[in-house]
Design goal:
The chain is of the alpha+beta class. It is built from five helices and nine strands; from the N terminus they run ααββββαβββββαα. Strands 1, 2, 3, 4, 5, 6, 7, 8 and 9 form a nine-stranded mixed β-sheet that branches.
Length: about 170
């Protein structure tokens, strides 16, 4: 780019680009990497609650998730990630209940588009001692509050839909 075109304007790079724009650009460059995510749910005093964890670098609220594991089905991977990142165990669904897309910025600065498939995990056990207990903050949210704090639009929509369904029963 010539200096004349850049004068007086800020150059946009991967780190300054809005995430929604970055997701759209990356969709055309390469397909998303598949991941497994667990939507950890329990019955709370005021209705269903979902357990979210904070991401390690940006501290965004998100579901426990991770890369596929050798010799494990994606739902098994989601259950393992729920244990490692949030200290929960329970019954995991066989089939995904949704998916969302997000952009992960690797340590190298390279953006990678990821698409976690979401598996419902009905929590039966909550532990204070788990592999990432000292690395992550976890918190229970109502479905409506969770929808307000997550960033990926598809995850937000899934939480809103579950909240509406729980209000109808």
């Amino acid at each position: 780019m010539s200096r004349g075109l850049n004068r007086g304007t800020e150059q946009m790079n991967v780190r300054s680009m809005p995430h929604e724009m970055l997701n759209n650009v990356l969709e055309f460059i390469r397909p998303a990497f598949v991941q497994a995510a667990a939507l950890c749910l329990r019955d709370g005093p005021d209705g269903p609650e979902v357990l979210l964890v904070q991401t390690l670098r940006r501290e965004h609220w998100i579901t426990p998730k991770g890369w596929p594991m050798r010799n494990k089905a994606l739902n098994q991977t989601a259950a393992i990630e729920a244990w490692e990142e949030a200290g929960v165990r329970g019954t995991i669904s066989q089939d995904p209940i949704g998916a969302f897309t997000y952009t992960k910025i690797k340590k190298s600065g390279l953006p990678v588009q990821c698409r976690p498939l979401i598996y419902r995990l009905d929590v039966s056990e909550l532990s204070d001692t788990y592999p990432e207990a000292k690395k992550r903050t976890r918190k229970w949210f109502s479905l409506a509050d969770a929808a307000n704090v997550v960033t990926p639009p598809e995850l937000k929509a899934l939480l809103q839909r579950l909240d509406q369904q729980s209000g109808q029963t």
